[in-house]
Amino acid sequence: GQSLEQPSEVTAVEGAIVQINCTYQTSGFYGLSWYQQHDGGAPTFLSYNGLDGLEETGRFSSFLSRSDSYGYLLLQELQMKDSASYFCAVRGGNTGTASKLTFGTGTRLQVTL
Amino acid sequence: DTGVSQNPRHKITKRGQNVTFRCDPISEHNRLYWYRQTLGQGPEFLTYFQNEAQLEKSRLLSDRFSAERPKGSFSTLEIQRTEQGDSAMYLCASSLGGGRDTQYFGPGTRLTVL
Known about the structure:
The complex is a heterodimer. Chain A is mainly β. Helix content of chain A is 0%, strand content 58%. In chain A, strand 6 (53-57) and strand 7 (60-65) form a beta hairpin. Chain A starts with a strand and ends with a strand. The mean pLDDT of chain A is 93. Chain B has no helices and eleven strands. In chain B, the strands form two sheets. In chain B, strands 2, 4, 5, 6, 9, 10 and 11 form a seven-stranded mixed beta sheet that branches. Chain B has a four-stranded antiparallel beta sheet with strand order 1-3-8-7, with no helix packed on it. In chain B, strand 4 and strand 5 form a beta hairpin. Chain B is globular. The N and C termini of chain B lie far apart (33 Å). The mean pLDDT of chain B is 94. The chains are: A mainly beta, B mainly beta. Chain A binds chain B through residues 31, 33, 35, 41-45, 48, 50, 87, 89, 91, 95, 97-106, and chain B through 31, 33, 35, 40-45, 48, 55-56, 91, 95, 97, 99-108.
């Protein structure tokens, strides 16, 4: 089967940097995605890592180490609007479908003044 | 609006009734997915279409659930004989394929079974 672990809650101050870690166990791994979800809203795509290394998109960066089955999302210059749940999701699976996403349970980020 | 759309946004039904949800993907996307999300959890994969072909179904998708994508455009998800445990947010996503195959989600249909 597949499993992902990420912290349940993180609190940080506006303007700070926060890192949300994700470890996974899976077969048929194609890549790691990150999604943001505000309460009552739809998951919104943030970043994807198919290969080892760092991907940077504005204030958000994501890192992947396939050998360690580990990734993280880095949020810089935190803003109040960044308060949301963040999900890592493994793309792939043991059925051979490259497109299927398996999500973690999410990390709730609270940004304070 | 060129994003993924879902209808209805909310559905309240009584146990034992049938319900049907509709998803309209981003127009050029050939892949369509259904997920279910309960409070405090991440979305769980239910099923996946490439064009009109249903290529994978999760074990979560009992025989009371059926999904179709008859012309490779919009999709419907039907739940027969609803149970209280079916109460959840049902999310649809679509993607174009390719290397990243990024999935874009719709706003979801929130189902409440009384």
